[in-house]
Specification:
The protein is α/β, with parallel strands linked by helices. Helix content is 32%, strand content 19%. It has 21 helices and 30 strands. The strands form nine sheets. It has an eight-stranded parallel barrel. Helix 1 crosses helix 12. The N and C termini lie far apart (84 Å).
């Protein structure tokens, strides 16, 4: 046991147990173990025993409390100074919240709470990322396309917040920013559903940690509405209404179903409380976004009653009105029977207190300003944060190959900010004035990006163009001068023009044409440059942003696009087109390729195939897939239709083609990340391969159903006596 005096409290270090902090130096000792006594009694109660499970401790505490004592513990205040006499026990903090003064103030509140009632500590949550100027924002983190770095930095930041007496973080937001006009675009990880999912999962794993007492609770923002998968339809924008599955992905695969059976501690729900509990069996804490939930009901009492019955636990922004809770309890009991409201209240308290005990808040609620300073100034933390800020900078343009600069004074530098998607008029005027400057220096334009920006009045004037997501001036200078080679990639697309924004479907990603620069480059998702040219590494291929045309079962266009990531979550009646190509040589040998290990059906053999991209015809898609995967080029006249197959389970319309090569030994170039080997098989060997376990099962089934059509198409290309 080690006892140390801190400013305003005493700290005990247990051998093999948690750290104990107490302002009143009230402890219970059993052998070599220290326990924190709290509240008005000196009795050592089960909920104070850290040797019990968090659930057991929470059950004991809840059993001792009356509903009137529990309800204040379920309200979320905003910078309230109440501390246990009926006030909110969950507070959202503002300001820097890491200064010594802030730590001292929170400790004073904890001291009061420790001596009141059951001694339940206040839980402080910061609304958003750590505000010490070190970290890139969510968009900046996404621009790295490096989820491991997000996990590591989140872990370091979580320890700083924990040391500051903060037990939770309202974030990360598990939302896909599919519309550039969305006001919360900067709070997301961008437009790609897969990148957002991976980033959300990594951030939560970092903040919450592997060991519960060391972690920080995350309250992730869930998708913006179930009815259409987004909030954009509420804002009068054009939506497909078929993107719910896409917008669920960051929650279902990122926040809720984490690796090793873990889960986010809490979610901030708008209106989806009942679905979270009933459909997704979410067992964590639901913090209610009250104003959005309240809009569905005629009174506060009715809204509060419904929220409690659906399973909400924490209530933010509840009006401080006399009799509100009493009226709510009466309504719940009238609808579900006497005593029902108390059961719901106790169930919510059990979830909230279980999390409190699991995260070590009861044992160690006090802030240590010295430790905060030590962690925040640690070389490892500052180095990683700096690398991430610099790595998030995206080089879009370097027309004259000016970079890296020998001296900063060799260029004129202008920063362009925006209001929504529009660049600020005063910045554009300054940009044009600098371009006309008689010193004839190249012009470097820094886009201060909070969301996609219209670039027509900006990019043509720039010789160097950088997109910056919260990086410091020094970070930008390091990139310009070559101390750090640019490596960031766009986490969204810059729209081609205002008409593209107005005409696109606000609930789906990547259905706009991207802005094309005066150099002919398309500023789409995952675009970025280094000093050698356009970046085309594994990050780009992993987060492919291709989109398809939505079709009905007969192949008619429905008028909206589908993101590739939506393939497994399409609504009934919606399909996309896939092409297959059977390629033969003049002697009748059939080309097969082996799938890369990173793909589904790894190392299996198949004929060439893939999805038809938005705007392509089936034959155009077949020609492109053959060229991309094998390097073989064909024309529409050299492609013969083989079969059409509709797969209702996969939501796919398959169009198969056959083509004959002019040479017996074609030059095949394999596509990295797609194919790793190829063979030319005689007909009988090909038939045996198709029927073996080494062939892709889905195409095997289609071959069996359409083999007569396939061989007829191949026979039509050249005279083959034996088919």
């Amino acid at each position: 046991m080690r006892r140390t005096i801190r400013s305003g409290y005493v700290r005990y270090e247990n051998e093999g147990g948690p750290v104990i902090t107490t302002a009143g130096d009230r402890i219970h000792v059993e052998g070599e173990q220290i326990f924190r006594l709290a509240g008005g009694s000196d009795e050592f109660l089960p909920y104070m025993d850290w040797r019990l499970s968090p659930g057991q401790r929470a059950q004991d505490l809840v059993s001792r409390m009356r509903p009137a004592q529990i309800l204040p513990m379920l309200t979320v205040g905003f910078e309230k100074d109440e501390s246990g006499n009926g006030g909110s026990h969950v507070n959202l903090v503002t300001g820097d919240y890491l200064t010594e003064e802030d730590c001292t103030r929170r400790n004073a509140l904890q001291h009061t709470a420790e001596r009141t009632g059951y001694g339940i500590p206040l839980r402080f949550f910061c609304p958003g990322p750590l505000r010490n100027g070190q970290l890139p924002g969510p968009l900046g983190s996404a621009a790295l396309f490096d989820t491991d770095a997000i996990r590591r930095l989140s872990g370091m930041a979580g320890k700083i917040l924990k040391a500051a007496g903060i037990s939770g973080l309202v974030g990360p937001r598990a939302s896909i920013a599919t519309d550039p006009r969305w006001s919360v675009f900067p709070e997301t990880f961008g437009t790609s559903a897969q990148l957002v999912t991976d980033a959300v999962r990594s951030a939560i794993e970092g903040f919450q940690g592997k060991q519960a007492p060391e972690g920080l609770s995350c309250v992730t923002g869930v998708w913006p509405g179930f009815s259409t998968g987004n909030i954009f339809s509420y804002e009068g924008r054009k939506c497909t209404g078929h993107s719910a599955g896409l917008h669920l992905k960051p929650f279902v695969e990122g926040a809720w179903h984490l690796e090793d059976g873990g889960t986010v501690d809490a979610v901030l729900a708008r209106t989806e409380v009942g679905i979270l509990r009933d459909v997704y069996s979410f067992r964590g804490i639901i913090m209610l976004d009250w104003l959005n939930f309240r809009n569905r009901f005629s009174s506060d009492e009715e809204a509060l009653a419904q929220a409690l019955m659906e399973g909400a636990d924490l209530f933010a922004g509840i009006p401080a009105r006399a009799q509100l809770w009493e009226n709510m309890i009466r309504l719940v009991d009238e609808k579900e029977g006497a005593g029902s409201a108390e059961q719901h209240i106790r169930a919510s308290a059990l979830r909230v207190f279980t999390c409190m005990f699991a995260r070590g808040v009861f044992e160690n609620p006090y802030a240590d300003a010295d430790q905060v300073q030590q962690l925040a100034t640690a070389a490892s933390y500052r180095s990683l944060a700096g690398d991430m800020r610099r790595g998030s900078i995206v080089l879009l343009k370097d027309t004259k190959k000016i970079l890296p600069l020998t001296r900063l004074c060799d260029v004129n530098i202008v920063t362009v900010r925006s209001h929504g998607v529009y660049p600020l008029e005063e910045d554009v005027k300054r940009l044009k004035a600098e371009k006309q400057n008689k010193n004839n220096k190249p012009l470097a334009v820094i886009l201060s990006c909070h969301q996609p920006m219209l670039l027509q009045e900006v990019e043509p004037y720039a010789d160097i163009l950088l997109a910056v997501f919260g990086a410091r001036s020094r970070d930008v200078f390091d990139v310009l001068t070559g101390r750090k080679e640019p490596s960031g990639l766009l986490p969204f697309q810059f729209p081609a023009d205002e008409n593209e924004i107005g005409g696109h479907f606000a609930d789906v990603p990547f259905d706009m044409n991207s802005y094309r620069s005066t150099d002919g480059e398309s500023y789409g998702f995952a675009y970025g440059r280094n000093f050698r040219g356009v970046i085309a590494d594994a990050r780009v291929s992993r987060y492919n942003s291709e989109s398809w045309d939505a079709l009905d079962r007969d192949g008619n266009h429905l008028g909206f696009p589908l993101a590739r990531i939506m393939a497994k979550s399409l609504d009934p009646g919606i399909y996309h087109r896939v092409v297959m190509v059977y390629t033969e040589t003049p002697s009748g040998r059939i080309l097969v390729t082996q799938r890369a290990p990173v793909k589904t059906y790894p190392y299996h053999w198949e004929v060439t195939g893939g999805s038809v991209l938005r705007g392509e015809t089936p034959v155009q898609g077949a020609i492109r897939e053959l060229r991309e995967e094998t390097g073989i080029r064909r024309t529409p006249q050299q492609m013969v239709r083989a079969y059409t197959h509709v797969d209702d389970g996969r939501h796919c319309i398959y169009n198969a083609f056959a083509t004959c090569l002019p040479d017996e030994e074609p030059a095949v170039t394999l596509q990295e990340g797609e194919t790793i080997a190829w063979r030319l098989l005689p007909q009988e060997d090909f038939k045996a391969c198709v029927e073996s376990d080494e062939f892709v099962a889905s195409e095997q089934g289609r071959y069996r159903a359409h083999k007569d059509e396939i061989w007829a198409a191949l026979k039509a290309l050249i005279p083959i006596e034996k088919v």
